[in-house]
Design goal:
It is built from 12 helices and 8 strands. The chain has an 8-stranded mixed β-sheet. By secondary structure, it is an alpha/beta fold. It folds into 2 domains: 179 residues, Rossmann fold, CATH 3.40.50.720; 83 residues, N-(1-d-carboxylethyl)-l-norvaline Dehydrogenase, domain 2. Helix 5 links the parallel strand 4 and strand 5. Helix 1 crosses helix 2.
C-alpha cells in the first residue's frame, strides 16, 4: 500500500456524506475523528457507519475483523477545534450554506497546522468564496464525494486559482487509497458533475410535469438506453429535492442559463415536503 500522507483526518459533519467519508478514510488506514455540533448527530453518523459495514459482513464482502478494525479507527467529537488540532487533513461535509462553510474554514485557519490540507465536500458552491479569508490558500481544495460514499468510485477534485501542485498530488494519491478515481476540474459553478447531473435531473422533472412519461419510464430510458446506473428522478429522490433545488437556483444565478431554471413541479413538491427518500415520498415512495 502507498504511504499515507494523511495519517490523522477530521471530518466535519456526521450526516450521510460525512459518515461515508469518515468510513472510507478509516478503511484507508487513517485515524479519523467524526465531528458534529451535538452528540445525537455524531452517534447517528456512527450508526450509519456500523450499519453500512454490517451489510458488507452480511454479504460476505467484509469480515467481522475488518469491520471492527475500521470502527476502531474512528473517534467522535462535538468540539471542532479539538477534533482538528494536529490533523493532516480536514474534510468539511456540513450543509450547503456558504456562510457556514466559510466561517468554519476561517476558524480553522488558526487551529490547524500550516501544512494541514483543507478540503470542502461542496457539490457546487464557489470554492473561492468557501475559502475566502482563510490563511494558506495553497492547501485549500474541493473534494466532492458521491453518495453512497463507500460505493461510488468518483472523487471530483476541484482546484482554485491558489491550490498548489503539492496539494493536488497529495489528494490524488490519497484518492487511490480511498479506492476512488479522481478527476481534476477548476473552480467553476457546479464544477463538472453537478452542472451536468442537475441539468439532466431538471429536464427529467420537466418531462414529468408535461406528461411526457412516468418517472419510472423516464428513469428506465436512461438506465437501459444510456447505461446510467440510476435514473435522474430516482437520483433526485436520493439526493433530496430540496438540495437539488438549492443547487439549481444557485447555478441559474451564477451561470445565467435558462436550463437551470427549476420547474414549478419541483418547487411545489419541496413546499409540500416531498423531498425524496429522506421524507419517504418524492417521485417514488420510499
Amino acid at each position: 500500500m502507498s504511504k499515507i500522507r494523511f495519517h490523522k483526518v477530521a471530518v466535519l459533519g456526521a450526516g450521510t456524506m460525512g459518515a461515508g467519508i469518515a468510513q472510507v478514510c478509516a478503511q484507508a488506514g487513517s485515524a479519523v475523528t467524526l465531528c458534529d455540533i451535538n452528540d445525537e448527530f455524531v452517534q447517528r453518523g456512527m450508526q450509519r457507519i456500523r450499519e453500512f459495514l454490517q451489510k458488507g459482513v452480511d454479504k460476505g464482502k467484509t469480515t467481522e475483523a475488518q469491520r471492527e478494525d475500521v470502527l476502531a479507527r474512528i473517534a467522535v467529537s462535538t468540539d471542532r477545534a479539538a477534533a482538528c488540532a494536529g490533523v493532516d487533513l480536514v474534510v468539511e461535509a456540513v450543509p450547503e450554506k456558504l456562510e457556514l462553510k466559510n466561517g468554519i474554514f476561517r476558524e480553522l485557519g488558526s487551529v490547524v497546522a500550516a501544512d494541514c490540507v483543507l478540503a470542502s465536500n461542496t457539490s457546487s458552491l464557489s470554492l473561492q468564496k468557501v475559502f475566502d479569508g482563510v490563511p494558506g490558500q495553497d492547501r485549500c481544495i474541493g473534494w466532492h464525494f458521491f453518495n453512497p460514499v463507500p460505493l461510488m468510485k468518483l472523487l471530483e477534485l476541484v482546484r482554485t486559482a491558489h491550490t498548489s501542485a503539492a496539494t493536488i498530488a497529495a489528494s490524488q494519491q490519497y484518492a487511490a487509497l480511498l479506492q476512488k478515481e479522481p478527476i481534476l476540474v477548476k473552480d467553476s459553478p457546479g464544477f463538472a458533475s453537478s452542472r451536468l447531473g442537475v441539468c439532466l435531473g431538471l429536464e427529467a422533472i420537466r418531462m414529468v410535469e408535461a406528461g411526457v412519461a412516468s418517472p419510472e419510464d423516464i428513469d428506465k430510458a436512461m438506465v437501459l438506453g444510456y447505461g446510467h446506473p440510476m435514473g435522474p428522478l430516482k437520483l433526485t429522490d436520493l439526493v433530496g429535492l430540496d438540495v437539488r433545488l438549492a443547487i439549481a437556483d444557485y447555478l441559474r444565478t451564477e451561470l445565467g442559463l435558462e436550463g437551470f431554471a427549476a420547474p414549478e413541479l419541483m418547487r411545489t413538491m419541496v413546499a409540500e415536503g416531498k423531498l425524496g427518500k429522506k421524507s419517504g415520498q418524492g417521485f417514488y415512495s420510499w
